[in-house]
Amino acid sequence: MSLDTALTHEEGVKAASQRLRGRLGEDLVDGRRALSDPDSEHLIKFHGIYAQDDRDVRRTRTLAKEELEYIFMVRVVVPGGRLSSDQWLALDEVAERFGNGTLRLTTRQAVQIHGVWKGSLRDLASRLHEATLSSFGGCGDVVRNTVLCPRLGEHPEYARLVRDIAAHFRPRTTAYLEVFVGGELAVSVEEREHDFYGETYLPRKFKIAIAHPEENCVDVFAHDVGLVPHVHPTEGPGAHVIVGGGLGRSYQHPGTYARLGEHLGFVADRDLLAVIEALVELYRDEGGRSDRRQARFKYVVADRGIDSVRADVESRSGRRVFVIDPPVLAPGHDHLGWSEGEDGLAWLGLPVPRGRVRDGDTVRQRQALRSLAERGGVEFVVTPRQDLRVGVASLDQTRVDEMVREHGLLTRDSLSPVARRAIACVALPTCSKALAESERVAPEVIATIEEVLAAVGRPDAELDVRISGCPNGCSRAALAEVALVGRTKSTYDLYLGGSPRGDRLAVMVAEKVSLEGLSEVLTPWCARWAVESESGESFGDFVSRVGAS
Ligand code: SRM
Ligand code: SF4
Fold it and tell me: Is the pLDDT of residue 183 over 70?
C-alpha cells in the first residue's frame, strides 16, 4: 500500500479502529442521543449505519438552543435486492418498532430504515440477524451491495454470483456482531482482516452492478465495475467488464466529475471473481487517500487509461481480459406489471413511488406486503428503480390481484410513463448532504412534466426523469433524459440529454431553475422534440443530436 504523507483523518481513524470497533461499543450505551466520539460517525458507516438529524427541525432547535433531533439511518444489505417472506416481515417489523414506520427501497436494491434512535440500534440489528439480514458493509470504504437486473436474478447462476461477490468481499472482522448483535466487546488477537482490504480498507466505496444483455435497468456504466453477461465464441460464457464509472461530484471541488465506465473487455466466468478482486486491489493500492472527494476508482481509471488498467489487472490476477467490441444495451425495463419468470414464478412488479413503502390513508402498501409475506413462500425483489417485485406461484396470481385492489395499491397501468420511470433520491429531511428537496417534491415535478408533455401533444412519452437533492446524484440523475439536481434550497440545475440506455451523460441546459419555472424552461425543448424528432427518437437522443446548449 502506498505511503502518503497527507492521509485524510478518516484513514487514521480506520487504522486505529481495531478493525472497525473504535469506541462504538461504549458510544452506543452512554445514554446520549448522539454519538459522543466524532470518529464513531465515520466508523459506524462501515456497519451500514448513518448518524443523522431531522433537518426539518434543525433550525428551530438551534435557535432555541435545544439539542438537535438525532436519529440514525440503517441501510440493510440485500445482494441483488432479493428477500424471502421472513426477511420482508423482519424489515417491516423493525421499521415499525424502531424506525419511522416506513421502509425505503434504494437505487442499489437495499432497504433503509430511517429515524432510529441510538438506543434501539442493537435491538434492531439483533432482529435483523435473526432473519439472516445485516447492515454490515451497507456503507463504508468497502465493496457495497451488488446490483443485479431482476430478470437475471431469476437465473440461479446470477443469484449465486451476487451472493458470492457479497461473501468474497465482506470484511472478515467480527466487529459488527460484537458491537451490534450483542457479542463480547473484545478484539481477538487471532482475527485478521482480508489481505486485500488490510487494516485501512479501501480509499472509499466500491460499487458493482450486473446488467441484462438486453436492457440496462442497473445503469451499468455508472459503477466502479459493471458486468454484462456474454458468450465468447472461443472462451464460452463470461461477461463484458466495464470499469471506472461513477456519478458523484461536488460544487466545491471542481476536480470532481461524473464519468461513464469504459469497456475493459471480456472475461470468462471462471476468471470473473479473480479479475474483480484484481480491480479492487488496484483501487486499494492506487486510489487517493489524501482527498476523499477524489478518491473513487473512476479517477484511477481516468489517470491510468484503460489499456494500462487492463495490463495491470491481467498481471495481478494471471487471467486474460479479451478485447472485443463493447455491448450495445437497450433502454432499462421498469420491471412493473406481471411477467412469467424463468424460475417458474409469476412476478408482479409494483410501483413504489420514490421507494417509500408506507401506509397512507388510501394506499396501504406496507400492510398489503405484510399480508402477502405472512402467507409465506413469496419472494421479494427490490428493483434498481426503487420499486418492488413479488414472486408467487402462478396459481396465486388472482389472489394477489385481489389484494392489490383491496389495499388500493398503485399498479403499472395506473401511472403515466413518466411517473412509472421517475427516480428521486431521499434528500430532506434526513440526508446531511441535501441542498434541495427531492423525494418530497417528486410528485410536483412529475405533474409539471406530465403537463408539459400533454401540452406538446406527447402525453404518453416515456421519459426518464430523475431528481437529486445535490450533485452526488444518488438517483443516478447524471444519466437521465431530464434531471433536476439540487443547487440551492429552492432551485435546481436542469440537465437534459442522457440516454434511455444509460450510456450517455446529460448536459446542463439551465442553472438555478425554481420548480415554478420548470415548465417554462422545459417546454421549448419538449415542443421541438414533438415536432422535429425522427421516428421513434427518444427525448434524450433528440436533445443530444440537436445539441443541448
Ligand atoms: Fe448516495 C451519499 C442515499 C445511491 C452517490 N447517499 C449518500 C448519503 C449516505 C448521504 C451521506 O453521505 O450522508 C445518502 C443518505 C440519504 C438518506 O437519508 O437516506 C445517500 N444513495 C442514497 C440512496 C438511498 C438514494 C436513493 O434514494 O435510493 C441510494 C442508496 C444506495 C445503496 O443502497 O447503497 C444511493 N449514491 C447512490 C448512487 C447510485 C448508485 O450507486 O447506483 C450514487 C451515484 C453513483 C456513484 O457512487 O458515483 C450515489 N451518495 C453518493 C455520493 C457521491 C460519491 C462520490 O463519488 O463522491 C455520496 C456522498 C459521499 O459518499 O460522500 C452519497
Ligand atoms: Fe442526499 Fe445528495 Fe444523495 Fe440526494 S443526491 S440522497 S441529497 S447525497
Answer: no
